[in-house]
Amino acid sequence: MAKKALLGVKKLAQDKYGVELKFNTTVSKVDRNSATTTSGVTFNANHVVVAAGAYSAELFDDNPTAKRLEVEYYSFKDTSGLPAGIIELSDSGMEYYGVLDGPNLDHFKMGDFSQRNFKNMLDYFKRRMPSKLDSICHTHPCYFTMVDTGEFQYKTGNNGVHYAYGFNGTGFKFMPLHGKIVYDGLIKKTDEKYIPLRFRAKL
Ligand SMILES: Cc1cc2nc3c(=O)[nH]c(=O)nc-3n(C[C@H](O)[C@H](O)[C@H](O)COP(=O)(O)OP(=O)(O)OC[C@H]3O[C@@H](n4cnc5c(N)ncnc54)[C@H](O)[C@@H]3O)c2cc1C
Fold it and tell me: For ligand 1, is residue 147 a contact (CB within 6 Å)?
């Protein structure tokens, strides 16, 4: 479903708005009106918006307020006896989260919503699902930007570059709204509705 949604957005951007997408192209420098790639190509524009997900703050923001959370997911190939989803909140404040996964929902992935710690997670599996330990087939990381306030971050930096990040693991479902907030709020500066005052552009 997520893949279909992304392909739909991509097609709309290309067909309706003539967007040119560049894949496998790393930007190493930005300023108010340009972005330069590691291969030395510079793109000029009226506005530059950085929405580099979990990398935004550390790469391009001169005043980072978001931190990268690196969650590790563990994939089990044996789903027998497991429900479609698990959420467990422990007394010590851990949040464990697991769902059926894969194109045919024939795997189960599970992790805890905190900075990755293999030992803690394997201890949890040993304690709570010992019969599944042998069926872990791979692990994969998942990066989020987290902001202490829990608010999304939209701002214009001192360098005039616009930033949108800090979606606290919920950025996907709000994606069209993020785009509208950036355009109305930061670029056109007409937003009166979407952005809390303290996150509005400072320029
Ligand atoms: C496993 C997982 C499950 C999730 N589930 C949900 C969910 O159910 N619902 C939900 O709402 N959200 C979910 N999220 C969070 C959601 O995916 C993010 O909040 C959202 O993708 C953030 O969007 P973004 O555009 O800010 O960043 P991203 O989608 O991370 O896009 C940033 C892009 O910038 C690129 N980039 C980074 N640095 C550079 C550079 N130097 N030069 C060029 N390009 C660069 C990256 O390659 C990437 O393509 C999930 C995330 C993960 C990992």
Answer: no
